[in-house]
């Protein structure tokens, strides 16, 4: 998993046929995100893979650690907003 794949999946607008193909073959990952949790899972996978590929004290390792922390705070902010939206309904 990498940021390019995440970007492509974020900006793919699914057609009806793409949605039907995804429903017909649930074992194959669709080329678009079906739920926000799919996005967060992929983003977490990027950081897991980067952590296994880079030494913590290297420039890449430090960059990965900082981005992972930023993603964590963004997730908490998103989760808080979603909870507030669902309380209204």
Describe the structure in your own words.
With about 90 residues, the protein is mainly α. The protein has one domain. It has helices spanning about 5-10, 15-25, 35-55, 60-85. Helix 3 runs antiparallel to helix 4. The longest helix is centred in the last third of the chain and has 29 residues, at about 60-85. The protein starts with a helix and ends with a helix. The mean pLDDT is about 90.
Task: Give the gist of this structure.
By secondary structure, this protein is an all-alpha fold. The chain is built from 4 helices and no strands.
Helix content: over 70%
Pick out the low-confidence regions: none
How would you spell out the order of helices and strands? HHHH
Q: Characterize the largest beta sheet: strand count, sense, and whether it forms a barrel.
A: none
Oligomer: single chain
**Basic shape:** flat
Tally of strands: 0
Helical region count? 4
What count of domains describes the coordinates?
A: 1
CA distance, first residue to last residue:
35 Å
Query: What's the Cα radius of gyration?
Result: 16 Å
Structural class: mainly alpha
Mean of the pLDDT scores?
Answer: 91
Percent of residues in beta strands? under 5%
